[in-house]
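Holo prediction — calcium ion.
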Amino acid sequence: MTHKFLLSFIFCLAGFSFYAGAQKKPNVIIIYADDLGYGDLSCYGATKISTPNIDALAKKGLRFTNGHSTASTCTPSRYSLMTGRYAWRKKGTGVLPGDAALIVPTDNSALPSIFQQAGYKTGLVGKWHLGLGNAVEKDWNKEVTPGPRETGFDYSFIFPATADRVPNVFLENQLVVGLDANDPIMVDYKNPVGDEPTGKDHPELLKMPAEVGHGHNQTIVNGVGRIGYMKGGKLARWTDEELPFTFLTKAKSFIEDHQQEPFFLYYALTEPHVPRLPATMFKGKSELGYRGDVILQLDWAVGEITKQLKHLGLDKNTIIIFSSDNGPVVMDGYEDGGFEKLNGHKPAGILRGSKYSILEGGTRAPFIVSWPAEIKPGVSDALVSQIDFLASFAGFFNLENKNGIDSKNIWNAFMGKDKKGRDYFVEQSSQLAIVKDNWKYIRPSNGLATYKLTHTDTGNLPTAQLYNLTDDLGEKNNVAEKYPEKVKELEALLNAEEAR
Ligand code: NG6
Ligand code: CA
């Protein structure tokens, strides 16, 4: 009897110590840059700019050389990240105006909802750009729903679209911050509202001129002409220079508040998207103009987050994923001295193309996954995409991936244990391309070969293009005529994907 009792006591102790020592679920932070190029970081070969904090993250984790957003613009890439679906499957997923309705499903299938189902507290801080409410017409003066909450975020602190689109306000848990009942907000993308000066009629009021021909000449907020018209909410409008501090403060509070439980934070920064108005302490720091300065600002924010994690003792068991929503662009509508100040810096690095193009510069992005407790540091050439987070985390948590039909569970690739990653991947600009075994096929297109205003090499050609990325990562040598069978095979695969 005593013997039995002793035995069960020992078992109980062993059980307890197993429980106490069990690995807690890792926290997960996705840090998402806006328009950051493959060549913009020193850990990806940049020599004219130094990004020590992101470099340190890469050094402690896996640096992917073939990691992708799904599209060469923002909304479709973010849509795929959230839903695990290619955006070209759904109409209305192009770059959204600031008054668009929510395009992410609210049926518990989106990425944050997966984390909720796994017992995580979920937070979103930064740029959203996936729409709000049920329709374009909405009342910005009360809670706007549906929004991030209905897609699975317990907490959100966002601006609705892009920094260059109205309304230039923050929403915390879907309510405008600093709302004044006596000065209600109205937003319109078709017709001017109110009688505030526009960039078009009052260029003398601008602190950063818009380039002629671009659309940044409507309501002026903080001395910058924006896309879209707004009135009211004078006290609620943010200033561009405070964005990094505000978002960082909110991200850090979320981490601090949830340090005792597993959390998922989607920290979507605005840098280096236009308008580039760095905080004063970063002005001139990079010597590459404002675009360089805001990249340093972004790097600083990453460093502040990693410092905080260390301070709280969370650094070992937190997965940090760092990437960008699309390729780089130097001139995107404001006269911020972009090209003149580049000083030989190549935002897309060795790649051809950039934001808006179907070439590798459009979607191949900086892509770092760090988890000190589990991942052995190194470099991986596996083909991976942000669209795969959904199926991979669902798989890790043993949860069902209901609707993310294009998302692949490539957990082992993210962990550095599988060197291949996806079998193939579809890239999107105004048209589609497919990559398999490092062969890239770009469909014929009648779109413009260059966009003059943004200096974009779009990669559009009326004939088929085929590149062997193993020898020709810069997509200089179209070998479609030499390998007609390959072209056929990849066109068939792309057709089959579309038909799925
Ligand atoms: C374009 C804007 C550009 C940028 C982009 C969206 C003009 C001429 N250009 O329409 O400045 O806002 O949309 O960028 O207005 S993204 O990163 O959100 O996709
Ligand atoms: Ca973007």
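READOUT: The domain at 425-499 is CATH 3.30.1120.10 (Arylsulfatase, C-terminal domain).
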